[in-house]
Amino acid sequence: MSHDPDHRLLYESHCHTPLCKHAFGEPEEYARTAWERGLRGVIFTCHSPLPDGLSPQVRMALDEYPVYRDMVARAREAWAGKLQVGVGLESDFLPGLEPYLEKLHARAPLDHVLGSVHPQMQPYRQTYWKGDWDAYVATYFDLLAAAAETGLFDTLSHPDLIKNENPDHWEVGRVLDVIRRALDRIAATGVAMELNTSGLNKALPEVNPGPVILGEMAGRGIPVVIGADAHVPDRVGDGFVEALDLLEECGFREVARVFGRQRSFVSISRARASLAPVA
Fold it and tell me: For residue 176, what is the DSSP state?
């Protein structure tokens, strides 16, 4: 089919810039890949600055936030009339950060705000690791639900990331009761959850979340947004067809999109047909 703007339906809703210190390529390059893959747009969600020097090695500094917005604005101007280019944030959630994040998110308009719990962050480990893996997993899902309950986020990103901290000991069935309780709380908030295709490249090669959790989400009517978590331009839109197939297998009939912090839905069949073949 033609891949003009009227037929483009999906966004790359999770990608980064070099300001996070572990991504490569300029926003214009990410936008070009989005165009080539038949996407409607690309939303940059670089790691938010955090107070008190929390993990500064993997995120922009607060004084770089205007630089970040300017970088995205240049890409938006370069692709005006062809591709929607949005600016968002991937904001870390830890209890106590809510007032800071509320002010950060209000500084300027955003198109998509991801809420992330990153158990690999050193401050997180120092606070929550007590030597008990099952308790660590339970804490992670409790915090994920707490993030949804703040109302600060549009979508919860890579929502079983904890499995990559100890892939040899991850058994979803063993912690399913914990996950179900968290999903009940998340469903009550109306917040969306992400299907993150970058999980296929991690220690446990499986999308985040895996199919068992996706099935539980479908049963609760939790909306799903697809993102590749691209840290290089070539990963924009990576695995989207496979992600749509998996969503359908898990009981979903629609996939969610977020732009301007407004959510909309498109059928999986239409979304799949809108994508350009990956060379």
Answer: H
Q: What are phi and psi of 231, to 5 degrees?
A: -110, 0
5 pLDDT above the threshold of 80 = no
What are the helix (H) ranges across 79-209? 98-105, 122-128, 133-150, 176-189
Cis peptide bond upstream of 209, omega within 30: yes
- Residue where the block lists tokens 């893959």: 37
pLDDT for residue 223: 98
Confirm whether pTM is higher than 0.85: yes
pLDDT for 53 equals 78
71-75 own/partner pairs: CB under 8 Å, 24+ apart:
71/17, 71/19, 71/26, 71/27, 71/44, 72/17, 72/27, 72/44, 74/27, 74/28, 75/26, 75/27, 75/28, 75/30, 75/31, 75/44
CA distance 41 to 32: 10
In the chain, what are the domains?
A: 5-274 (3.20.20.140)
> Two tokens at 152?
């600060």
Structure confidence at residue 163 (pLDDT): 96
Evaluate whether 201 touches 232 at the Cβ level (below 8 Å): no
Residue 48: predicted pLDDT: 97
Query: Cα separation of 144 and 185, whole Å?
Result: 10
Q: Give 212: exposed, middle or buried? Use CB within 10 Å, 0-12, 13-18, 19+.
A: middle
State residue 211's pLDDT score: 98
Phi, psi of 171 (to 5 degrees): -135, 105
